[in-house]
Amino acid sequence: MAPTPTLQPFHVLEDTRRDDRTLPAFTVSTTRGFLPRDEPITELPREFAALDTLLHRCPIRTATGGPGLLAEGLLGEVVEQEFPNLVEHVAKYANDQAMLTALYRDYSFLASSYLLEPCHHNMLKSGSYGLGRSVLPENISMPLAEVARLTGFQPFMEYAGSYALYNYRLLDPALGLTYDNLAPIRAFEKGLDRTSSEAGFVLTHVDMVKESPELVAGAVNTLRGAEHYLAHGDKKLFKDGLKEVVNSLTKINRVLERMWSRSKPGEYGNFRTFIFGITGQSMFPKGVIYKGVSDTPFTFRGESGANDSMVPLSDNLLQISMPETPLTDILKDFRKYRPGNHMEFLSWVKSSAEQVGIKKLALEDAESATLYLHALDQVRDFRWRHWNFTREYIIKKTAHPTATGGSPIIRWLPNQLNAVINAQMEVFRALEDLNHATPAVAEVREKVTKQKADLTKEVEKFCAERGV
């Protein structure tokens, strides 16, 4: 008989120790989930007043309602002629991870604004992006590279540490994390108006991740429940953990559905230009030189919801098998673009799920298999909604072939969506073998079968239209 597996420990915080600023700003917890341990810092130290002032002047429409530097095409000139190199001040905050993350957010915002400013104006004039700037000047590249080194982020805008999860403030701290109490800190277009489409795009992601503590707890409890079952033969804790996962993903999907009313499809292109990356983009055919940092051009992927940790956590926990394709290689590459502790936790979940055999245990009996099916169905639902957003916000609005992160716009999401659907099909067959047929399972099967056919038709249609 094989020995009972014993999982390696992983410290998921319960007390996020908000006052300890030596800890990374992002550390997985059962109280904050994948959000930062404390609310993001909104005010920079006086040494960085020039950075704060420039970012207030930067958006297409500023907080005062007037045109900003990006609207007038003047940011590049101001950066090159007026903006100081503040890298010498970064070391003062070497032991303050929260402040370093705020500086990372702000310098990465400035870097993307500077590099992609020409693309914004090219798009307005010609309908295509043209070329971005190919050299990032020292006054941005050096401090950005240094804060990235000290925090572990990539020296380019990331989803968690910059554009989304460290880019919100509470209007009234006493009211906490409710959507109507959130406002962005930085913006490219007119996102400083919290009713704008850019603000809605950013804050809906924060609103979703607010629901991640239960998902984190559910994943840990599922794994520990599997370990307990293998040692003692009692499956209750395992099933309870799966129920937590299903409940959490259901709440996350409800929030995601609100994107339609908070961020309009026809307005997404107004700010999307500035969240493109370098990798795989026609705007940067030779990469970008970070002057004063390296003579070798850098390429980084752009800001993308694929950097979020919630669905990858679910993939790893549920052992969803991705096909061995170049599209899956891109998915793996995205793993580098999230906080270090998130990466470590997702890796632990993956190896632990493999060690105890989550999928095998789930398919042993009808009750566990049904819970597992519903968890998969929530992952499918999330990816289906994401595909719908991509179709309506991007594919129908632009012929640009790549997403902001550098993945092929049409085929990439269906690669992952089909993987989840295929996993569900396997569960349907297992339930048949267990002679378990219920109206609820039949309803899920009918929906999934139709969606798979609809997805195939849509992908073929879009590929034929674009000749890809």
From TrEMBL:
Pfam families: IDO. GO terms for biological process: L-tryptophan catabolic process to kynurenine. Keywords: Dioxygenase, Heme, Iron, Metal-binding, Oxidoreductase. One of its GO terms (molecular function) is heme binding. Heme b binds at H386. It comes from the Eukaryota. It catalyses: L-tryptophan + O2 = N-formyl-L-kynurenine. Its EC number is 1.13.11.52. It is an enzyme of class 1 (oxidoreductase). The keyword DNA damage does not apply. The keyword Metal-binding applies. Belongs to the indoleamine 2,3-dioxygenase family. Produces N-formyl-kynurenine through the oxidation of tryptophan. This is Indoleamine 2,3-dioxygenase. It comes from Tuber melanosporum (Perigord truffle).
